[in-house]
Specification:
alpha+beta; 11 helices; 5-stranded antiparallel sheet; 28 strands; single chain; 4-stranded antiparallel sheet
């Protein structure tokens, strides 16, 4: 009796101190998915917070049968306030196909009438209608064929991971070699994910591209509410056959309950056990590795029918364009030919294009320029530009020919040869051809053979700017020979020409331009949130090192900082900073003030700029 009286007194005390802080009641309704087929069931969850003055009013919807499945209650204390939330679940069994509107659900809470928002459910005409006695079916899980049982099984197997589990869903199971496959990865947790890091799972059979950004929402799985982080990746198979895509793995930090050290729980145990779910937040952090199952694919080989002889395996939807800087030049001058390929697909492995220009003159290829954008909606969009410097050796009218590039277009499901004509080039006689110099001929303006002297053996011949390297520099011996032969003015001219070529070469390098603009780009893209700042930093690091910044994992970032020569103290601070950014990206919270986090990141960037 004494125990019961004390418990009643304690309960009244807690309710009394919480009553002044009561807030207005709320009601919300959520479908586990908005579309499906006839024969499937769906799950409707109604969440009610507040003091109920009436029963929940559930409307009738023609064509749908709603059956109550269960009721759960959660009581928590947040900042000294008692909050009670009731979750009522309904199974929905469609009796016909169509689009249905579930009206607002209403209830009287804290003296006021509250209503949820209306919901829309689309049912396609496949399968058979279910009766009211049927079970929950697959409606409690996610999207896609077979994902319901897989998600429920993963939820059951997640007991030793703090309730955190992953699933992956790809758009097709039988792609072609080289075809882009969008995949969705969902991270399920119960609000206890405190940071994480993607693990790099490379494979010789697949190329994998992470897509920036994430989507966050809540979902009911096997009667439990989960917070979901939805990520995307693009995978591209490199060969045909029965292949398994390696699991998507996450090194996660999870907060797990540890009530052994909860003194308030022990206090209640002395009086017959705790009567409330106080959820006081006595937790500890646990590091776990969670991953999806491998994803099987039956990768099809590209068809042999219609395959061009020059096909080199390029798959995508591309366009080809060309331009020629001049259509008429003098012999010995330079014309620049630019060829650009752009479209949906991966072009980084296209190294060269077939051109037949050697019969016209010397050809100097420049280093190709490559850009790549990865989007969860449109996939991988890339562009590659080739430039060639052509120096015709003699006058005449030449046909430069066509550029032909065979590809396989998965949208058209056939081979296509892209074609772009370069057009004609008129080469006029140069000055050397108009007045050829004949050594030994007679005449007042023609020097005698004895007047022609060899000044040096290592003078540079005609070179394209891109071919000027350290082996082409004037040696000290050559400089001495020029000075000794009275060729001071020639030496000065050569020095000026060499400096001009070096400036042009430096200015034309896309890698050098990326490095020079890395700091400016970082400041422009930094944004205001920790997630935006960290993405801008990864892009900055990629620009400085000539890497794809968006593909850098946190471990890659720390490895690259170590290679840059940061001191041990700097690496330690960088590791702490990266961990907090990971926490912000995966849990939505971060340790510390956002402005302070941004300042620390700026200091790290300044340290890198000194290297």
């Amino acid at each position: 009796m004494r125990h019961s009286a004390l418990r009643a007194l304690l309960t009244a005390f807690l309710v009394a101190i919480a009553a002044p802080a009561a807030v207005a009641g709320t009601i919300s309704a959520e479908l586990d998915r908005a579309a499906g087929t006839l024969g499937e069931s769906f799950l409707l969850t109604v969440s009610i917070a507040g003091s109920r003055d009436s029963d929940l009013e559930v409307p009738d919807v023609a064509g749908l049968v709603l059956r109550r499945q269960g009721v759960s209650q959660q009581t928590t204390i947040v900042n000294g306030r008692i909050q009670m939330e009731v979750h009522v679940t309904f199974a929905i069994y469609p009796q016909q196909a169509g689009e249905f509107t579930i009206p607002s659900l209403t209830i009287q809470l804290d003296g006021q009438k509250e209503s949820s928002l209306p919901l829309t459910l689309r049912v396609d005409a496949t399968g058979t209608a279910q009766g009211g006695a049927a079970g929950q079916g697959s409606g409690a899980a996610g999207q896609g064929s077979g994902s319901a049982s897989g998600t429920a099984a993963a939820a059951q197997a997640a007991a030793d991971t703090g309730g955190v589990f992953l699933e992956r869903e790809c758009t097709t199971a039988s792609p072609l070699v080289g075809q882009q496959i969008p995949c969705v990865v969902r991270i399920y947790h119960r609000g206890n994910l405190n940071g994480g890091q993607r693990l790099n799972q490379s494979s010789a059979d697949f190329r994998r591209f992470n897509v920036d950004g994430e989507k966050r929402y809540q979902k009911i799985v096997s009667g439990q509410r989960y917070a979901v982080i939805e990520l995307k990746e693009i995978v591209v198979p490199t060969r045909a056959g029965a292949l398994d895509l390696p699991p998507y793995a996450l090194d996660a930090h999870v907060l797990v309950a540890n009530r052994r050290g909860n003194p308030f729980e022990k206090f209640l145990d002395r009086f017959g056990g705790g009567g409330f779910n106080f959820d006081m937040g006595f937790t500890e952090e646990k590091q776990i590795t969670v991953q999806t199952a491998p994803t099987p694919f039956e990768v099809r080989a590209l068809p042999d029918a219609g395959k061009p002889a020059a096909f080199n395996g390029l798959v995508g939807d591309f366009k080809l364009s060309v331009s020629v800087s001049k259509s008429s030049i003098a012999a010995g001058e330079t014309v620049t030919i630019t060829i650009t390929i752009v479209g949906d697909g991966i072009l980084d492995q296209v190294d060269q294009l077939p051109l037949s220009l050697e019969q016209i003159g010397r050809v100097y290829p420049d280093k190709p320029e490559y850009t790549e954008q990865v989007s969860g909606d449109s996939g991988i969009h890339s562009s590659k530009t080739f430039k060639f410097a052509l120096v015709p050796s003699k006058a005449g009218k030449y046909e430069l020919g066509d550029v032909n590039l065979p590809i396989y277009n998965p949208k058209l499901e056939q081979y296509v040869t892209l074609n772009a004509p370069l057009g004609p080039l008129i080469v006029d006689p140069g000055k050397a051809e108009e007045k050829p110099l004949v050594v030994g001929s007679q005449g007042p303006d023609v020097p005698n053979r004895s007047d022609v002297k060899v000044l040096a053996q290592d003078l540079l011949g005609p070179h394209a700017p891109a071919l000027l390297d350290r082996n082409d520099e004037l040696t000290p011996g050559a400089l001495g020979a020029l000075a000794g032969s009275g060729a001071g003015s020639m030496l000065l001219s050569l020095a000026l020409v060499g400096a001009g070529r070096l400036r042009r070469r430096r200015g034309a390098s896309p890698e050098r331009e990326r490095r020079s603009k890395a700091l400016t780009t970082y400041r422009e893209q930094k944004g205001k949130t920790p997630t935006e700042a960290y993405r801008a930093f990864r892009s900055y690091l990629g620009d400085k090192l000539g890497l794809a910044g968006a593909a850098l994992t946190s471990r890659d970032v720390l490895d690259q900082l170590g290679k840059l020569g940061l001191a041990e103290d700097g690496l330690r601070r960088a590791k702490s900073l990266v961990e907090r950014f990971d926490q912000a990206e995966f849990s939505g919270t971060f340790g510390g003030n956002a402005d302070a986090l941004g300042r620390e990141l700026d200091e790290l960037v300044q340290e890198i700029e000194k290297r």
